[in-house]
Structure formats: structure tokens, C-alpha cells
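FW: tagging you since you asked about this chain on Friday. Here's the raw sequence from the shared folder, copied in full. Didn't touch anything.
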Amino acid sequence: MDIVTAQTRQGRISGERVAEDLVVFRGIPYASPPTGENRFRPPGPPPTWTGTRQATTFGPISLQPPPNLMSSIPGDATDQSEDCLYLNVYTRAVDDGRRPVMVFFHGGGFVGGTSTSTLYSGEHLAREGAVVIGVNYRLGALGWLGHRCLAEGGGRPAGFANWGLQDQLAALQWVKLNARSFGGDPRRVTVFGESSGAMCIAALLATDAAGRLFNRAILQSGAALAMGVDSAESIATELARELGCDEISREALLPVPGEEIVAAQRAINGRLDFVGLPYQPVVDGGLLKSHPAVAIANGSAATVDLLAGTNRDEWRFWAMGARDDMDEYHLEQLVARHIEATGLGESLTAAEVIAAYEQARRSRGDPTSPLEIYTALASDWIFRLPAMRLASAHSTGTGPGRTYAYLFDWESPFGGGALGSCHALELPFVFGTCVHPVVALFAGGGEEAEVLSSRMREAWANFAATGDPSGELVGHWPQYEPSGRLTKRLGKVVEVLESPMEAERSLLDSAFGAYGEIESAIMRRVALPRAEP
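HL: got it, structure written out here
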């Protein structure tokens, strides 16, 4: 093993040169362990040491339920612990290169995932000229439980949630202090994430960290999301009940083993009637004083360059098993449920939405079966519309931040093509891991896939370096604005589209109204416990 050392603010560490142009440091603690009395507390300062600390093995991943498709690649780290606040650094060299820094926050519905997955290896992006950093943070109830009782004795005037988000801020503070030790430029920091990782970044855009700890952001298949205090406390109360606590309090929750908390959070999901995710950012008056969409609409991210996009068939990731079960009746029922959940019944009916989607898809030659209509609607409603509303709000701001958008439409070969261009499919192209034989079963391998990956890695790295994703391979990438909605198509064809799938987008957007209004209203209606039978 070829050892390379770097000097951090905490002490000297040793990493591994895995190739002539790549050095990897694994398992670096960026905060103190969030265990014992530090559970449900903001992360404390990282440990220090004398001598040289070995950084050649990954740290534990956050406690979570059993792995899923995206976190179970053979060879991935699986050791779990509440002591999980570690990050990994990929760099060409430990020098004074002043390279742009890219900090990745993984997805997993706020309850699963890890930055150490083979899928997220930063080696290929690092070879594009960036210092790539993957961060583990607290998940599930341990990372996102919100209740006013958790503020007691915390020494803070407000705030009783968002522990995982505070972990991410601690990691970004660590990057600001230590980036130069790994050849990075602390003045050029890009945060990027997928799914719940992107939703975390949207929340970070609502804080004073935007423009201070990072100046560029890439949101892949995720946008502004948060719940209100009442919803968060209803979940916390259900969790305490499942754990056998007479009442919810810090004193009752601290002695409970973390593994039991994870088991309880899984058990109560079936008893909650919620729209969205039961664990997510909370507007608690501390770190988040308003819904992220409202803050962004008011200019909180005005100085940050933004790249946002989604995959064409996001919802197929979850709808694959419903191929034989969807008919017109069930389609109308599901669409009506979406409309009811968001309070749009006065402006839209299920029949109107279905008819509009059928007409728009038929005009493009797209299939119009009930399942196709539902997956298209769910993809738009949950992913594409929130992302484009965020991009539009950002692009019309008064600050210097630039805005870019993409639509990813490469199709997975898995299951005979049943997944289409589904959720998470862009990840192996961004990271260059589509060449991995297991990942290729999901992403599709071969020359075409590698060419697309090269184009996307170039775009992501160029954006991190300059704030503009244009490049020699990917071509010119125009800025996004609401009049033309110029969007980069990324797939077997790479080109600029004007207002893709505009009929569906405009239908939903006009019903939702001004950015921030419906998003803020929804947070008051999620995660409410079902009535006892």
C-alpha cells in the first residue's frame, strides 16, 4: 500500500494512493460521535489526535433498516453504528492544486444509504479535476426526529430537529477548514445530492450556509421539502408509543438502544397516514425558520449557482411491481388521492388531469396505458414539478446565482426495460460507476453508456469549477429561465430542449400557484396519525 499523508486541523492522517492520479482518504471523523448524551443534539467538534491517524478504511454507516438495491453492491461497507459522522476524500494529489470541491450527500429516503457505496465512488469525478468528498450523516429517527422536548437543556434558544441537516453543516464547516490540505479550494465548494440528499441541499439553501459554506449546488431528483412541527411531533409521539415510553422526553429516549429505535421507526410507518416521507427536515424555528421553498423564493439562495433536474420516469423505480394491477378505475383513485392530499380539489379533478396527460402523451407518440399515465403523473408531481418550480424561482431572483436544468432520459435495461429512465439511474453516469459489472445490470454498460457518463462527469465538474456546466463533450448548456425553459437532455441523445413536456408541467404548475405557497401548505398536512380503530 502506497501511503500518502495530509495535515488536517485535527491532526495528521494517512490515506492510500490507489493509482498514479488518485489518492483516497477514508473514514475521517468530521464531528464528535452523536452518541449518549449527544443523541438528538447538534454535532460537536471533531476529535483531535497526536501522531498520524490511519484513514484507509471506511467508517461505520448510519444505523438503518436492511439494505436495498442501491446500497447492497457486493463489497460495500455494511458495519452500522450511531457513531457514523465520517467522510471520505478523493483527490488527484495532496498538493496546492486549488481544485474545486464537490461534497456529496447520498439519498435513501432520509432513512437509508451511505456515501461509501460503490455506486458513489468519487474516483472518476476526481480524475475530472475535482476534490470529491462523500459524507455520512444521521438517518431515520436518529437524524430527523423532531419534538419540542428535545430542545430541553440544549443550550440553544430554538431548534429541536434536523440533526442530520446539522451533521451536513458540520461536514461543510470541516471542508471549509480542511479543503486545502487535500488540494482543494475552499472558495469553490459545490454541494450535490440525489433524492433525499437533494432535498437536504434545498433545505441548506434556506439557511445562512448558502453562499458562506458553499457557492454552487446540484439537485438531482429532489427539491424543497419540509414538514411542520405538529406533523413532526405526531411521528415522535408514535415512535415513543412503539418503544413503550409512557411519554416522550429526552430522558425516556436516551437509554433506548439505537437498533431498537430503527426497528420502531419501521414498525410505525404502517400506522401513519402521510403524504411524503415520515422523516425529513422540520420547520422548527431554529435552523429552518420557514419552509425552504418560501426562503428560496425570498432570495436565500440568490448568490448560489444552481443545477437541477430529474429523470423522465422517476416513479417507475417503485411502480415496476404494479404492471398487471393498474386499470382506469385505480388510476383515477390514485390521481384523486394526490389532488386531495395537496388541497387542489377546487382547481383540478382527476378526470381533467388524466385527460390532459393522455392528450399530451398521445401527441408525442408516448404510451397511454393507465400505468404509464400514473407513473408519468407521479414522476412529475413528486419530482419534476418541484424541481422546475425551484429552478424557476431561483432564475427570477435578483442575485448573481445562475440556473441550469436537465432532463435525464437514458433507459435502464433491467427487467426487460420496465424501469425506463427511473429514479437514481443518473447516479452511475454522474460518478462514472456504470462500468462496474453489478451497477451495469441496472444502468446498462457499453460504449454508449461510457460516452454519456463522460459527458455528465465533464458537466458536473465544469459546473463545480466555473458555475457553467458547458463543455467540449456535453456542448453548450444555456441557462434556464421561465420563458424558454431551456433544458439539457441527457441520454442517448444529448441536446438542448425548449420547454420539454410543457403541457403537463404547465397544467400542474398553474394549479399549484406561486412558488412556496402550496409547498408550505402541504407541510401542515403530512404525517398525521391514523385514528385508532
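FW: Confidence is low (pLDDT under 50) at residues 526-533.
HL: agreed, and The domain at 1-533 is CATH 3.40.50.1820 (Rossmann fold).
FW: great, closing this out.
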